[in-house]
UniProtKB/TrEMBL annotation:
MF terms (GO), sorted A to Z: potassium channel activity; proton channel activity
Transmembrane segments: 12-29, 35-55, 75-94, 100-122, 150-180
Catalytic activity annotation: K(+)(in) = K(+)(out)
Organism: Solitalea canadensis (strain ATCC 29591 / DSM 3403 / JCM 21819 / LMG 8368 / NBRC 15130 / NCIMB 12057 / USAM 9D)
Source taxonomy: Bacteria, Pseudomonadati, Bacteroidota, Sphingobacteriia, Sphingobacteriales
Protein name (Swiss-Prot/TrEMBL): Putative integral membrane protein
Annotated family: Belongs to the TMEM175 family.
Membrane topology (UniProt): Multi-pass membrane protein
Length: 191
């Protein structure tokens, strides 16, 4: 299988994940603006998860663009990532419908942690296939943001039982951290 086919398959799965998430937002039964009030937590959780899915899609694209070769272990690692990403619509809806209750915030963090771990595994499999001197390996370096994300998600899981808004703030922090443009891979590819 070529990396182009792997990327196309992944793009399709990610598009379906986003579609499932938006279908969870139910149309209100009233016609005034107050009818939207109960949907605020649902929409907030959707926006956060949409941003996360977008971050994964963007970084996945750049990572595969930097890869020169893939093998069976990369295919399985990619499926592992897609499995965890496919659970985001469930925890997003659960969290929004229950107004960010502590258990739902903890489970959201667990799924985010597993997505980050799966992405790290995929990244290491691609580097293993392409070598320590590969473009991707050079671009990632020590991968501070990736490792910091794992630590922050773990903290957010525990923080959900102290106060759910601490947990929410950590999830937003991680998203903002990744929204800041990271040109590491682009710089290496362009050279």
């Amino acid at each position: 299988m070529t990396k182009g086919r792997l990327e196309a398959f992944s793009d399709g799965v990610i598009a379906i994940i986003i579609t499932i998430m938006v279908l969870e937002i139910k149309v209100p039964h009233g016609s005034d603006l107050m009818a939207l009030k109960p949907l605020i937590p649902v929409v907030i959780s959707y926006v956060l998860s949409f941003i996360y899915i977008g971050i994964y899609w963007n970084n996945h694209h750049h990572m595969l663009h930097a890869a020169e070769r893939i093998d069976g272990s990369v295919l399985w690692a990619n499926l592992y990532l897609l499995f965890w990403l496919s659970l985001i619509p469930f925890v997003t809806a659960w969290m929004g419908e229950n107004h960010f209750a502590p258990v739902t915030m903890m489970m959201y963090g667990f799924i985010m942690l597993m997505c980050a771990l799966a992405y790290y595994i995929l990244q290491t499999r691609i580097i293993a296939k392409n070598g320590k001197d590969s473009k991707l390996s050079q671009a990632l370096g020590a991968d501070f943001k990736g490792k910091a994300s794992l630590v922050l998600y773990t903290l957010a899981i525990g923080a959900a039982f102290i106060h759910e808004w601490i947990s929410a703030a950590i999830y937003v922090l991680v998203a903002v951290m990744w929204l800041i443009p990271d040109k590491r891979i682009e710089k290496v590819i362009d050279n």
